Every structure is written in structure tokens, then in C-alpha cells.
Amino acid sequence: MNKSAYPKIYLIHPPTRAYRGLGASLAGNEHIGLEYVASYLRNSRYDVSILNIEGNYRLPRVVAEQVFLAQPLWVGISPTSLSIEWSIEFGKFLKNLTTIPFVFGGHLSTHMGADLLKHIECADIVVAGDGELTALALSKALESKGSHLEKVPSIFFRKHRQIMHSGTPLLPSSLDELHWPVRPTLESIGKSNSARILTSRGCPYRCSFCTTPAFYQRQIRYRSIEDVVREMIFLNQKYGVTNFPINDDIFIDGSLNSILRTISLSRLLKEKLPSISFRPLCRTDVFLRHEELLSELHAAGMKCIFIGLESANDNDLKHLRKDIKVSQNEVIIKLLNKYNISLMIGFIMYTEVSTFESLRQNLEYLYSIDQLFRTTAICRSSLGFPGTDIYSEMLRTGRFDRQRSTPFILYPKFRDERIRELSLAMEEVEELFASVDSKMLSARVNLYDETLRLTNGKNPVLQRARSILDEISKIYLTSFILAISFAKAGNSSDKIVSVFREILPRIESLCCDFELTLNKGQLLEQWQNCAY
Questions:
Q1: Which residues of 80-118 are buried (b: 16+ CB within 10 A; e: fewer)?
Q2: Cα separations (Å) of 189 from 186, 192, 193?
Q3: Which one of 32, 64, 80, 209 has the lowest number of neighbouring Cβ atoms within 10 Å?
């Protein structure tokens, strides 16, 4: 068939601000949502390309020129509040070149809906909710010159200078009906150690800082475990994938069905893929009620887990609607140590109700649980993203920092102006330390913790590596205590940042020593194994 019979579509994953990028999560730069949409469209004979600018940064103008030359049917982009600036710049360049429809999708687009079309002149259409079925219906409508956009489910669009909404989203009856996501990154590089996997969509919880509850209406839908494992086997055999960051909004929702499903999945993985590892996002309280799940998951390959601890202060946790206590988080940390499971944390250092006392409490907590080896945890604030309860509350009360905020992201209005200065400074610190933080996270989880597991703590380099970790943690502890004292004294954010600028070279040097020490240790372990 002639190539022209396959209409071209471009889907774009725009770059996040460097210091908030996905690389720091060790999950790679895949956008599995766009990969699912691309797969669904390809199955209907559309020629779809994904441009992952997050993993390969390019200027908006350059990408716009590339897209224009291909003359696609339409161009889709999935921005977040932290990648919206690049997306808008790209759209402006694109619209200077062509009238090709420019379509927005994803969480931000869904939650802003008509407001996004009001704020972004270059945006033509907004897809709200899951995109697969809507993207296909939209493509067919645009092929017929867009005369029936009102029949496309769940989109916002302009007609006669009015913003129109076509109605509710169209969803597949089962996630198993969707085609496995295409993997352009894996296709381009061949063998790869890591690929994201999705086992469910949605979350029933109500965290006030999260966009997921409103996006999925606090509902959760599952893939069958058989379909999940089949895809993992395929990725393992075709691309050599052995590590699977699980992309679920919540891996276990606490229901009996979810618990039984998790046990079945763990046992099937142990049988079919005994040499892989995976990392899910979970809550603490499920494991406190069902410790046996940790044992099952660990046996199946869960070497690492991501848990949103968020705070060491119960008032902050209540403000964030975590519905959990600090004491419960403390128990899970002990359980993870018992099973030698690495911990990655979500943490929100600053909330609207933060005090210097609560900040000091957070700092000492992070130090006590061995999570002060990078700056990320001491830099993040409870930002208001469209679709979150925090965002809605900020708009309702007007309590947000108007100097720092945009329509796409609201910064908290701190009750103490001095904490604002500290938060402002630490946002800059996170950017300064982005590279070394990412390296430290990788070295900690993939080298130190793995060596600890494999050798039962008997590798001779571990003592040296542990001393480096301790030194880094102490430097961050003392530096942040000094930063707090400067903030309390009313010093500017610039002076606070200077505290961390001074320690950056030392941290970079220690990070290199840490990696080098552990790499030598792994080589020694391999040599000893060969010798026997």
C-alpha cells in the first residue's frame, strides 16, 4: 500500500525543568501513556512517531521545523505544569509554520480543559481523560476535515470563536483490550536493562497534592496478571529487560481483590521470570496489615519500593490528606530493612503550615532513616497543580504566592515569610544538585544496596562506602541546620543558597568516591566467584 495511505501523527513528550526531571527517579524517560496511544493508533494503520524530548532535549524551534516537514494529520503533546513552558514555545513556532491541529492531553490538560484553550492560543484541541479511544476518533474526524469534532468523545475545541466540550470520555471495557505500548526508545537502542510496565490505572486515595484522584475519579482499573506477565516476558526476551519500574498510580489499593491479585502476580513472576526485578509505588498502611505481601513481593523480585512518606509531622500529613501517621511509616522502614528492600521516598519538606520546628523535625527524621544522601527530600514544597485539592483550595481562598505562581502551578503562601525565603533558596539548590543527586540515587540503590543484598553485608568495601554515605548525610544535616538559622534571622535566599554552593564540590567528590568504591567491590566479588 502507498505510504500516503497511512496518515502521519506526531506525539511529543516535552522536557521537564532539568532539576525536576524523571531521571532522578531511576525509571527512565519513557512516557508510557503516549506509548499506549501510539500503539492504539498504529493498530488502526496510522503512522505514529513519538518525539521524546525529555530524553533528548532539543529546542522548540528545531522540533517544530521537523514536525512541519512531515506534514502530519495532527500533533499531540502531553505537558505537565513543569514542562508547559517548552510546550507553549513549541506551539508558537509550529503555528508560525502551519495550521496543523495542535492537540493537548494528559493530566494537566484534562484538569484545565477549557481554561487551557483560553490561556494557550496555539492549542487547538484538548483531550480530557484516557487518550487511546479519543485519539482514534479524533484522527478519523480530522481526516474528514474536522467537520464532526463534536462527535469525538471528551475533547475541548474552538468553533466559531466559542470553546466547545464534546462530553464524557470513551473508555475500553478492559485494559487488556488496549494494545501493548510501543517502545520507541527500546527499538532505537536495542537491548536495555529497564522498561516501565503498567498493571493498573487509578487510585482510590485522596492525597490533596496529587492529580490522580480527580483524573480517575478515585476509581482503579486493572490489567489481568496474565497479560502483564506476557508483556514482561516479551520485553525480557526481545530487549533484554530485567528491571521493571511499575508505572501504576498505586500498586496495591488495600482491597481484598488487590491483595489477592498481588500475591498471584508475585507467584507468577517467580515462576515465569525468576531473574527480574521491579519497583512499585505503594502506601505504608497496606503492608502494616499484610506483612506477608512484602515477603511475596521480595521473593518475586521487588528489590526496591517507592513510598510517599511526605513528612515527619502528623499535622503536615493531615494537611496533605495522607490518612496515615508518622508512626506507621516508621514501622514500614523497619520491615523493609528486615527484607533487604531498598527504599525510595516521596517527601514534601514545606507546606503552607510548616514551622521552623517542623522543618527541623523533618530534617532529623530524614537523617535517622538514612534518606539524607541527596538534596531532593529537603527541597520540595507542596505545590498546587491543576486538578489537586490543594490547587482548588488555593484558588478558593486566594492563599497562594502570586509572585511565584502561574495559571499552571500555584506556590503556597507560607504563614511565615522567612520559610518562603528558605523554600525559594532550596528550589535553586535542587537545580544545582540535580546531577549529583541523580548519581547518588543510582549508586545507592543499584550499587550499595545491591552489594549489601548479594553479600549479606560481608563485602569488604561496604564499610568504606558506608562511611562515605555517613559523611554526605552529615554535611547535608549541618548545612541545612545552618540554612534554617539564616532563614530564621531573615537572611535572603541568596545567602542560604551560598551555604550549599560551598559544599557542592565536596559532595561531588564524595559521590565519585562512593561510585568508585562500590564498582571495585563488585569487581572483587565477581573475581572471587570466578576463583571458586
A1: bbbbbbbbbbbbbbbbeeeebbbbbbbbbbbbbbeebbe
A2: 5, 7, 11
A3: 32
Contact 18, 434 (CB under 8 A): yes
> What is the model's pLDDT at position 457?
79
In whole angstroms, how far apart are CA 214 and each of 25, 112, 351, 389? 24, 12, 21, 9
Q: Is there a contact between 252 and 282 (Cβ–Cβ < 8 Å)?
A: yes
Contacting residues for 56 by C-beta, under 8 A, at least 6 apart = none
pLDDT of 42 over the 60 cut: yes
Closest CA to 209 of 87, 305, 308, 325: 308
Q: Look-up: residue for cell 512517531? A: 49
* Cβ–Cβ under 8 Å, residues 260 and 225: no
Angle at 194 between CA 189 and CA 196, to 5 degrees: 110
Angle between helices 60-70 and 84-97 (to 10 degrees): 40
The phi, psi pair for 8, rounded to 5°, reads: -85, 140
- In this structure, what is the dihedral angle of CA atoms 457, 461, 463, 466, given to the nearest 10 degrees? -90
Please give the full DSSP string across 177-226, using - where no structure is assigned.
Answer: GSPPPP-HHHHHH-S-SB--B--EEE-----TT-SHHHHHTT-EEE--HH
Distance CA 441, CA 428 (A): 19
The cell numbers describing 300, all together, are 518475586
> In this structure, what C-alpha cell is assigned to residue 13?
513528550
529 compared with 10, residue with greater pLDDT = 10
The Cα–Cα gap between 511 and 532 comes to 32
- CB distance 125 to 155 below 8 Å: yes
* CB distance 401 to 413 below 8 Å: yes
Distance CA 326, CA 361 (A): 11
Q: Which residues does 313 contact at the CB level (< 8 Å), separation at least 6?
A: 326, 358, 361, 362
In whole angstroms, give the CA distance from residue 161 to residue 122: 14
